[in-house]
Amino acid sequence: MEIRPAVDTDATAVCRIIREADDARVISEAGWIHWRHTAAPDEHALHLVAADGSEVVGVGVCGLNRWTSSPGAAWCGVAVAGSRRRQGIGSALLDALLQTLEGVGATRATGFVRFSEEGERWATARGWERKLTGPLIAVDPRTIPEASLPAGFHFAPMAEAGPEAVYDAVVEAARDEPRPEPIDSIPYDDFISEWSHPDVDFQVSTVVCEGDRVVAFTEMRLVDDRAQHGFTGTRRDYRGRGLATAAKCVALRAAASRGVTRVTTSNAEENVSMRAVNRKLGFVPIGEHVIFGRDLGSP
Ligand SMILES: CC(C)(COP(=O)(O)OP(=O)(O)OC[C@H]1O[C@@H](n2cnc3c(N)ncnc32)[C@H](O)[C@@H]1OP(=O)(O)O)[C@@H](O)C(=O)NCCC(=O)NCCS
After folding, report:
1. Residue nearest to atom 31 of ligand 1 (CA)
2. pLDDT digit string, tens, across residues 1-22
3. Which of 137, 273, 280 to mutate to test the pocket of ligand 1 (most atoms within 8 A of CB)?
4. Rounded to the nearest whole angstrom, what is the distance from the C-alpha of residue 60 to the centroid of ligand 1?
5. Does pTM top 0.85 for this prediction?
6. Tens digit of pLDDT for each residue in 81-105?
7. Closest Cα to residue 252, out of 205, 197, 194?
């Protein structure tokens, strides 16, 4: 078994393993390659694979969290093909990731995973603990009714609004999303990299504007007949007027018109308003997403 840096030609195997670990995850080969090639240097992102000869049987990824002002924060994730578990592959990947993170100054890490009892046992035995939990939910977007907006607002595809206008609204809303580390310093460069992400559909992703100003937005990733909501948000002064619900209705209906039959998303238990929006739209639970965390280095 060899642990080595991932290369573009691993894309198919890596995406298959990622989707096997969490079938709510919407990621294409092109999307994974884009992710690897657009990381900012000071993120120190590392994508590893475990390879048995020419067969990729596990994946690991880590980096520093540049979206928070909180120093020392990092993220990481490991997934092993179902048929190759319990052979120490996940542990070998995790050890390599944690060593890398410690080498670039990380003091603690979080990992976002689809809950399974096996996964939780594995993580807990390696010093990780639950930081946030939330229901993983899904809806058939063909069931979504037409959206309505209060007077004075209009919808636009995110592509039409343009990155600068959307960035400003994202930065404002992101500060209020419950997370183990506050999202309070999203670099504009990262946002621009995301703007060319092949899995994000910027015609389906929708904004609500008052005049030229984006006041609410919802992002969506689409691959084949599956979609996954990215970030949804409403500027602080505009909340409670149905704007996030309306933006999501438009995006979900647009996804349905492109042949999507299942859209997934998840939110922390603590995020009562986002969960209320999703409940209203008919999303139903299909599992649980968990953010685990642990400190790094010697105590
Ligand atoms: C979550 C968020 C997008 C909602 O935006 P919004 O435009 O206010 O949403 P809407 O007005 O369409 O709906 C809000 C719903 O939450 C409910 N709500 C608000 N506060 C609530 C609370 N404390 N308890 C229970 N329900 C609450 C409202 O009653 C409303 O539901 P209703 O229409 O059934 O009454 C907004 O709060 C936000 O930007 N939060 C920060 C970013 C975030 O966490 N995004 C989610 C991660 S993707």
Report:
1. 276
2. 999 999 999 999 999 999 999 9
3. 273
4. 34
5. yes
6. 999 999 999 999 999 999 999 999 9
7. 205
